[in-house]
From TrEMBL:
Organism: Candidatus Competibacter phosphatis
Protein name listed in UniProt: DUF4242 domain-containing protein
InterPro entries referenced in this protein's UniProt entry, alphabetically: SCO4226-like (IPR025336)
Length: 101
């Protein structure tokens, strides 16, 4: 599998809506397309219009599989970019909300 970054712009009005989509995304990936796509992580961003978007890291057999996953879930894949390599300077910081739980 190859690694991709996917930009999803202004797909959700709030974190509750995003959470519902995340559940569908995980189910579709794990149950319907387990040999084609693998969700690694997502970074949630606040868009200029106030809605939420994401930058997601996925593994997939190709960009078409990533696009098909997004279609089945009902979310955009505004930009799909093949990741050539990874350079980790520091691990991702722990989200404040996650550290409270």
């Amino acid at each position: 599998m190859q690694t991709f970054a996917i930009r999803r712009k202004s797909n959700w009005k709030d974190t509750a809506e995003l959470s519902v989509t995340a559940g569908v995304s995980a189910r579709v990936g794990n149950e319907e397309m387990p040999d084609q796509v693998r969700w690694i992580r997502s970074y949630v961003v606040r868009e200029d219009d106030g809605r939420l978007g994401t930058v997601c890291i996925y593994q997939g057999e190709d960009a078409d599989a990533i696009q098909e996953h997004a279609r089945r879930v009902g979310m955009s894949a505004d930009e799909i970019v093949l990741i050539e390599d990874t350079v980790v300077v520091r691990e991702d910081p722990v989200n404040q909300m996650a550290s409270v739980a």
